[in-house]
Amino acid sequence: MDYDLMAEELVNMRSSQPQIRFERKLSKVMKGEGFVLNYLKNHNNQAHPKDLSDEMVVSTARIAVLLNHLEHDQLIMRFPDSRDNRQIIVKLSEKGVSLLEEYHQETVKYMVKILEKLGKDDAAEYVRIQKKLMGILSEG
Question: Does this model's pTM top 0.90?
């Protein structure tokens, strides 16, 4: 089996995917502001800016800019940390939670259409492979 050839084919396919409208939208959700919102959702709707900086591997200055935009759009709120006056806690607002839910529902609807087009067997196989791939990628 020629893994180099298959890898080249996958890289070429992925590099053309940003041209797909849904892929662009999903990519936007997973980067920058969307990433922050999803991170908060997956961490009890709150985090310290330093946690966000560490997770995204970006400077705290970049996080401050992202948080300013999100706060301006009323998607997050910032509060002093009651355990440490020097820290703030970032929390999702109700509007932020609603926006994430809307994106989630839209994404699920779109994925249902894709899976239906793949058919029962291919859809199940695709999900199985994606789970396996996520496990491999999370190993480091």
Answer: no
